[in-house]
Amino acid sequence: MAAALSLFRFDVGRYPSTVEGLQALMLDPGAENRAGPYLSGGLPVDFWGKAFQYRAVGANAFEIWSLGADGEEGGTG
Fold it and tell me: Would you give the DSSP letter of residue 51?
């Protein structure tokens, strides 16, 4: 996903916003110069079959994480 996000940034000039999320790699959020989709086969899921979480951090960074087995922020497992 990091490579796909880098391609999005190369085309658009920024990473997807937190609101746009990882979906921006598959579906056009209306970003100028976007040439995606940037992933084939859809968005990957974590080990438990759940969606990865994404957050833009400033203009030049991002975070991707899993909520783990229980699917809860700050949960266990």
Answer: B
Q: How many domains in the chain?
A: 1
- Give the max Cα distance, the chain: 41
Domain around 42: 2-65
The pTM score is 0.86
- Mean residue pLDDT across the chain: 92
47 neighbors 75 (Cβ within 8 angstroms): no
pLDDT at 70: 82
Structure-token match 């040439």, residue found: 35
Strand (E) or helix (H) holding 53: strand 53-57
